[in-house]
């Protein structure tokens, strides 16, 4: 046997004097520090024979400048076949240590060997079915029944449903669980913890890691849980590491590790500890060892002096009783004080049963390592995950209604609310051409031709009335004001969005201007014009009114020529817009914004759905538990993708049907490719959701991130405003955003009718696919490497 000589551990031989006093202990501690450590042989092989072996573990949280040191050179040895009780005050780092052992957190320095290998490395079985992990959180699916929960974890561990059902009966009676058909969310906290424990016990793992399994469990049941643990470890095949706050319940453990200040105060059998420290209970032992540890630290800090003075210093009665030959010493890992270590004599009780040196796991071969790292998806994992994701989603009726109802309602709202022509805008009219007694804004005018058929002389009268008649066909809320001053005052109060003033001899001046433009004086020209004052605060409205005012004039002029039997086009501006190359003759904003809106709805719903599902899974500890049981990040992501694709197909069909069949959005291109682009865009949103859930720790930060990305994407991807109108730098940014190319591609298919072979169209597909790959890779890497 050998012990680790690098962990600053010294044998206990100097702390054995029964008449020891405070001062002598201090002297001894000081003397020991100066003493040379005797090097002992410690090999990787010896560490790999233990169920768990931790050496010189350092772990800290927080910033480098002000770190919160949790593990401070901790050594731990868990022999195979032992029940190891990990004890310590709340917050001392038990859970942190366990999550490092199961490979979910990384040490800052030090080594961990689990079942002969490094966690996460080949041969360790961690993560994987060789380990049974019950985390501190309940980490179960509320929507599932007890039996379904067992089926999920059983399938992951490679069990058949029949095997699971057989084990469920046993566990239900052992842990006094309610009827297995009961839903987990309807169980009490204590019952849920027992279900969680049974999920860890289900597949008879070699190493059971149980983080506070007996919280909220009554003493009788607690005893039967311990009896069961003792029973399963008897054969030496199963090892148990258990944390608990009930120190005295660990009397049945083979070894207990008392953790304090980032180290072990001791790592011994409970009976050995109690007899050595002449303590009634393990709590007493813990207290006495804590005092000793504080004394070691006292020279550095006097903060704990009060505590030390109030507690009786332990006397150690029979130093020879704990004297151990070097040859008997196992890998000493328990320690207390400043580099004062405890021997592990008690461990002999356990190790005797399992001392037969088992064959070591095969050495890692470099050739197979690469293949092992790729870890292809396992069928039984995927089966369990897809089954779980499917039922988690489809049993949550509220969520289901939301994810189908939201795109439906959004599309209806978009089609009803966006792109329609604003009507009923109040337009103030001051018509000085008619008498003040003429109170009807649509004043009378002669519809016959105002041209003398003999002399061809024009006699234009009340042209303003003719014009207002046409204007009212476009904007029907014309409000007559008696004077320009009143009109301007009222419009300043918001009573009119524009004011049109007709000069007193508007028709005569207009006629003069047309008849003899060369000799028309500026006053005549000024009086021939309609004076327009616009409310420019709303650019969109201003443009539309501007267009109406001008088009109404053209229509009036055309009407005049028609009434005189002249060609209609004679009076219009000599620019004629013929059939458009693409799109409708009357431009439609709904058609312009439609593609972007469709893609945005599908993209961000997928982001919300995926990040929500993943975050819930992670925060409830389910993700952690699944990863420890051997599921890979890739499997988790792909299982979500497969199930959520179903949802997305329904969402896509709903949105497209509403848009194109109900609201007649223009669709002239290939329908199949339109559907495919919408679907892969949703997939892109889904993968972005994975990234969000991996980066963010809480739903709140995920909401901020999703919202923070939603607005820039909306603004920059050309939905609201053409990309060509943006600042050059924004155009570059817009170019690489996931929705820009796809929006343009969809618009080209819908309105231009372009096929997939056109670069603008296929570049949308390529851009979306590239983003999917990027997001997916980032999420897989984050799941794999983002550990505490
Ligand atoms: N991700 C983290 N970031 C920063 N600090 C953390 C993190 N996780 C744990 N800690 C801190 O590390 C310390 C040890 O936490 P840990 O959960 O390991 O303690 P514990 O012994 O299991 O406590 P308990 O018995 O109450 O569960 C605590 O002070 C805790 O606040």
From TrEMBL:
Lipid bilayer topology: Multi-pass membrane protein
Domain called ABC transporter: residue spans: 52-286
Pfam families: ABC2_membrane_3, ABC_tran
Main location: membrane
Superkingdom per UniProt: Eukaryota
Localization: Membrane
Keyword Cell cycle tagged: no
Xref: SUPFAM superfamilies: P-loop containing nucleoside triphosphate hydrolases
Keyword Membrane: yes
Span of domain ABC transmembrane type-2: 558-786
Transmembrane segments: 592-616, 637-665, 671-692, 704-723, 761-783
Keywords: ATP-binding, Membrane, Nucleotide-binding, Transmembrane, Transmembrane helix
UniProt cross-references to CDD domains, sorted A to Z: ABC_DR_subfamily_A (cd03230)
Annotated PANTHER family: ATP-BINDING CASSETTE, SUB-FAMILY H, MEMBER 1, RE14039P
Full protein name: ABC transporter G family member 23
Gene: Osy
